[in-house]
Amino acid sequence: MHLLGHHGTGKSYRAQMVASERGIKYIIDDGLLIKENEVIAGISAKKAATKIETVKKALFNNQEEAREIKKAFIKYRPESILILGTSDNMIKKIRENLGLPELTETIYITDVATENEMAEAKRIRQTQGKHVIPVPTFEIKKDFSGLILDPLQIFKFKGKDTSPYISEKSIIRPTFSYLGNFRISDTVFRQIIEYLAKRTKSIYKINRVRIDKIEGEEGISIYMEVSLLYGYNVVDELRNFKKRCKREIENQTAMNIETMDIVAKGIYVPEEEQ
After folding, report:
1. Domain that holds residue 258
2. Are residues 6 and 102 in the same domain?
3. Are residues 190 and 163 part of one domain?
4. E strands, 55-177, where?
5. Of 15, 152, 156, 232, whose CB has the highest number of CB atoms within 10 Å?
6. CA-to-CA distance for 24 and 13, rounded, in angstroms?
7. Both 20 and 52 in a single domain?
8. pLDDT higher at 182 or 24
9. CB 98 within 8 A of CB 60
10. Cα–Cα–Cα angle for 34, 40, 43, nearest 5°?
């Protein structure tokens, strides 16, 4: 089955709804193979540096990327798949590159969205550069470090006494967008680190925090120096604190931490121990 519609008309936004209504668990959208709310294979086409590269990734022209999707087919054995595309020709190329059979049904975006909804989706795409990916933010943020704009969770009821349809999505601005960058002040990272330090018994004080943007990468590098309380295993405590910092910063800011180094610069001995 495939869902057709022009760019920016809301296909990705409505993909989960369409799939849920038809009992389809798998979606192919912009280079990704999605099972319900989880990305199980692929690299999002919207990470590409240019629109041309975006199209190539969405069509799975790269044999290695297509091979990854095919391996997922063998592993998960999907009974049905919803493929999103802008034209019959695009769907045909995706099928050919992934070795999929002829599709049985075509759904047009006009069948699931009103003219006003499509017009609003186009307006937001053109004026704000916002795109939707039909998975939760934590599933896609690794590919969009610094580009995630907003996570969404939408609850919809189909009727009385029915279970709610839960749709989780991430609104992002693709790499090739020229509408500006998403930036977070270094102060935010330090505040998160200090907050965690206050709730970690072994950390006496954060002495220094340095945040660097890695050249050629989308993530950041964090270096920090800390003082620990006497009586704790330094190696274990630094490792655990590093893990907590990395997890919380990535969860709260959607920024990808490429490297994080923590150095113990001192041991504090309480007066009663001195």
Report:
1. 186-273
2. yes
3. no
4. 81-85, 106-108, 131-133, 148-157, 164-172
5. 15
6. 16
7. yes
8. 24
9. yes
10. 85
Q: Could you give the count of Cα atoms lying within 13 Å of 98 in the half-sphere of its Cβ?
A: 30
Among the listed residues 200, 184, 213, the one whose alpha carbon sits nearest the alpha carbon of residue 243: 200
Are 75 and 155 contained in the same domain?
yes
Q: How many angstroms separate the CA atoms of 137 and 22, rounded?
A: 24
| Bridge-based pairing state of the strands 81-85 and 2-4 | parallel
For residue 63, being part of any structural domain is answered with yes
The secondary structure of residue 227, as a DSSP letter, is E
Question: Is 97 domain-assigned?
Answer: yes
Is it the case that residue 104 has pLDDT exceeding 90?
A: no
- How many domains is the chain partitioned into structurally? 2
Residue 137 maps to a domain: yes
Q: Residue 47 is encoded by which pair of tokens?
A: 């990470």
Coil, helix or strand for 57?
A: helix
My answer on whether 121 and 225 are in the same domain is no
Q: Using DSSP bridges, classify how beta strands 106-108 and 2-4 pair: parallel, antiparallel or unpaired.
A: parallel
For 133, counting Cβ atoms within 10 Å of its Cβ (0-12 exposed, 13-18 middle, 19+ buried), the class is: buried
Residue entry with tokens 């945040």: 211
Whether 241 and 156 map to the same domain: the answer is no
Predicted confidence (pLDDT) per residue in 147-196, tens digit? 444 444 444 444 445 554 444 454 444 444 433 444 556 777 888 899 99
Long-range contacts formed by 64-68: CB under 8 A, 24+ apart: 65/31, 66/97, 66/98, 68/41, 68/42
**Residue 33 and residue 9 share a domain:** yes
> Is it the case that residue 44 has pLDDT exceeding 90?
no
| Mean pLDDT score, 117-123 | 73
Is residue 160 located within the same domain as residue 54?
A: yes
Query: Could you tell me if residue 177 is inside a domain?
Result: no
